[in-house]
Design the sequence.
């Protein structure tokens, strides 16, 4: 087991009817910026519940934050925070809204000239973020319980992640009934995203991390077990399935399964480029890349791939390579079973995009994956594998 | 799944050599009360590492806190905190030292006349505790990452738990190498304690809590797998076994496996009485009571007992009652395999003690267990079962 440091101060408030808890979580009289997206919260009742919960606060609304939140949108909210002396931000939405809000909260207290440095400059000293909380409407990114965010800049064709040690949400309210009205595509994106988050922290080096291994497997198994119910065409919502999904998504990237293990993240980095260059949803990119990475990196990840085959897919074939082949097939099959395409060609993505991604990784001298094992050349092989 | 609220702000610093991190965790010049027990830390090198880490701080030592920390000992430390205007407390020890320190930290800021009310009066409003951190020397209670404490009062033959919402350690340093020099009896107490903590949050009602169920099973399986290595007579310390044990103990009672599930705690409450009346170690009491509780409450806990048999002990007997019998036998056998007695008679404890415990529970009108299913009469049956 590796040495590690863990901290996660976010207060999780989980269950039906819990949005009303805003009444005691946000002090009356607070000046609140309420951030949200395209307005789906006005259709599913969440908007009204939030407004009711914030009664007695001075609320400024900032809607219209897009999926893969854009720097040039967010900077407008930063200006409002500064001009209006906003005291608290409440993000109401999914990962994009919450990620965007983390940037707003951080940039509002930033003293430098160029807030984009917060995102791109690892060595930038980040300020304590403005206090913020979240009401989650889409289980997927776990942004509601971590201090990371992914921000896009369309004018530069870029998409990067940043982490602020002082940027955890103060609280996050998770009401699983929000899942009832989600489009199936968003649910399947959330399933793939959570599955991939878990693999990034699991499918690496064997370090005798018994608890973390089984905790990660628990999340994978829960997703596999709940997916059919969640993807059912009819809308007879099963509360416990939604609750299991929502909790799994949060636990997938809040540090709880990351203690003492190596981490990969190559699939996410390759996926970010596919989103930046071709506009695919984040979850869509992961469903393509992961099976490819498993195959190309099978030697380096042999021990964990075999454990994954045995424990998650219950494959007991004595031939280890065959067991791994079957696990990769099962993984791709799982993604396809929830409606995800798993090949670049299905989106009309060709060799030119592969070349551009390899060019970018080479230019940036990126060695991705645990211990830098995913070189630009390996990234090419992964993408070629899933053409 | 039940609604729940979760928060745990303790910073965990885990791994070999991490005690030196005190240098940056406690600000130079701070007035620190250093609490510890009987002096074993002076033999295993921890004392020296802590003193080195606290260089530049003004350190007042308070040693001699006993196992099952006593109110009348702790109150002396409270007086020192007040008289010397202590700013930070560092607990160096196991659960007893940390529990005692939580009481000290809470009582130091308490304005009432009778600090014992902190422990016995549920309705007492507790103050924010004085800031404190811990250096853990004995994996068992998870007190290093929760806000609960158990305090004894020998002059009244009493032992009770209390929780302070504002009483989490600021940080806890867990260096698994401290396990190397522990007496086997303390290791086996820690294993039983962690196993029991996990069962208290697992072996209750089936609520379709897929993640929590598997996370709890992960802890149980890790303990079962690591116990033989940890209990080996020779001292060829296996670092990863110690690390897995230490992490499991912390995760067993820090709220991570408690989300959305029912909890029991009857075994602990019965065990506390056995400690108060007969002086048994906490872990010793649990090894006796749990197999008895499993059998007596088998109807109410049927679903979970069966899942426990199948998933933890790999028992696939189709006869459900037989499978549960085997799981209870396996549990008792596991405790015995690490040197624990599992019957009251082995400690010379007779009917008079059983009667006294039932009398106390009846007097207090206690209905223990999830949904109050463990009545005083059931407590009697449990104790009779393990005579």
Sequence:
């Amino acid at each position: 087991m590796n040495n590690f440091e863990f901290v996660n101060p976010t207060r999780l408030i989980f269950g039906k009817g819990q949005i009303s808890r805003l009444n005691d979580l946000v002090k009356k009289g607070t000046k609140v910026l309420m951030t949200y997206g395209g307005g789906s919260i006005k259709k599913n009742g969440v908007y009204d519940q939030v407004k009711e919960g914030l009664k007695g606060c001075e609320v400024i609304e900032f809607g219209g934050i897009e999926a893969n939140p854009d720097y040039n949108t967010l900077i407008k909210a930063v200006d409002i925070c500064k001009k209006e002396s906003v005291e608290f931000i409440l993000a109401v939405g999914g990962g994009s809204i919450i990620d965007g809000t983390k940037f707003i909260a951080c940039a509002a207290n930033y003293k430098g000239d160029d807030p984009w440095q917060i995102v791109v400059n690892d060595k930038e000293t980040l300020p304590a973020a403005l206090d913020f909380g979240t009401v989650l409407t889409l289980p997927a990114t776990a942004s509601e319980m971590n201090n990371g965010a992914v921000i896009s800049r369309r004018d530069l064709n870029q998409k990067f992640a940043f982490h602020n040690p002082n940027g955890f949400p103060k609280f996050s309210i998770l009401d699983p009934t929000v899942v009832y009205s989600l489009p199936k595509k968003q649910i399947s994106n959330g399933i793939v995203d959570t599955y991939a988050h878990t693999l990034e922290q699991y499918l690496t080096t064997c370090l005798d991390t018994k608890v973390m291994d089984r905790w990660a497997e628990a999340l994978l198994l829960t997703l596999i077990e709940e997916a059919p119910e969640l993807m059912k065409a009819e809308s007879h919502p099963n509360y416990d399935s939604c609750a299991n999904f929502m909790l799994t998504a949060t636990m997938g990237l809040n540090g709880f399964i990351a203690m003492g293990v190596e981490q990969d993240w190559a699939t996410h980095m390759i996926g970010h480029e596919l989103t930046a260059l071709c506009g695919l949803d984040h979850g869509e990119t992961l469903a393509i890349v992961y099976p490819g990475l498993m195959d190309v990196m099978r030697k380096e990840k042999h021990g964990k791939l075999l454990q994954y085959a045995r424990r998650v897919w219950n494959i007991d074939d004595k031939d280890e390579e065959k067991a791994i082949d079957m696990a990769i097939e099962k993984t791709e099959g799982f993604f396809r079973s929830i409606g995800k395409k798993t090949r670049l060609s299905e989106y009309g993505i060709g060799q030119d995009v592969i070349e551009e991604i390899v060019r970018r990784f080479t230019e940036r001298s990126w060695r991705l994956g645990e211990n830098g094992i995913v070189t630009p050349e390996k990234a090419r092989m992964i993408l070629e594998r899933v053409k």
Observations:
- The CA atoms of residues 202 and 213 of chain B lie 6 Å apart.
